[in-house]
Amino acid sequence: MPCTLLDPAMIRAMPWKNGGGSTLELAIAPKGASLDDFAWRISSAQVALDGAFSSFPGIDRSLAVLAGNGVYLQRGDGQRETLLSGGAIAVFGGEEAISAQLLDGPITDLNLMTRRGAWSHELRLVRLQGEQALENDAEILLLWNAAPEALHYRLPEGGRQMLAAHSGALLENEQGHIELGSDQPSLLYVGRLYKS
């Protein structure tokens, strides 16, 4: 899969591991893996109620708010973290006891998970306007357009590709120089997944 488009409108919703909500499983490896044996997983959840996160022992997680007013995370160590749309990204272990409290109404989040010891990852937010270069050294690269307008990207070998609003592209083994571009101020989440 050199490039896979991730369109939330085409993906089936499935229940959370703890049954407290539903999520769109955007991509998972290996294909057909369950919530107990995946190597990595990318999902987007609709969170409409306060409550505890599902437990994922041995999994490293990154979480960002794509839409809505935001959420408070009560961390297992007692610290409280605020996540806002287009703001900070929370990074934590899947076994950590975390509960979420919505600020004002439902949110949509982006969730990137890798199995510790097999894969690692990082998730960053890029504020994009005009042309910008991105150097990729990861085996798998996630581009998630969180803006209401389309943006474009060009791979090291290939033509210009459009990335629709509120959708993503998953690029495998496309290391090198990637050109990004947007006519409007845009928010792009960039996830890098590395095999350990």
Automatic annotation (TrEMBL):
Query: Protein name, please?
Result: HutD family protein
Q: Which InterPro entries match?
A: RmlC-like_jellyroll, RmlC_Cupin_sf, Uncharacterised_HutD/Ves
- Please name the source species: Ectopseudomonas composti
Question: Which chain regions cross the lipid bilayer?
Answer: none
Instruction: Specify the superkingdom.
Output: Bacteria
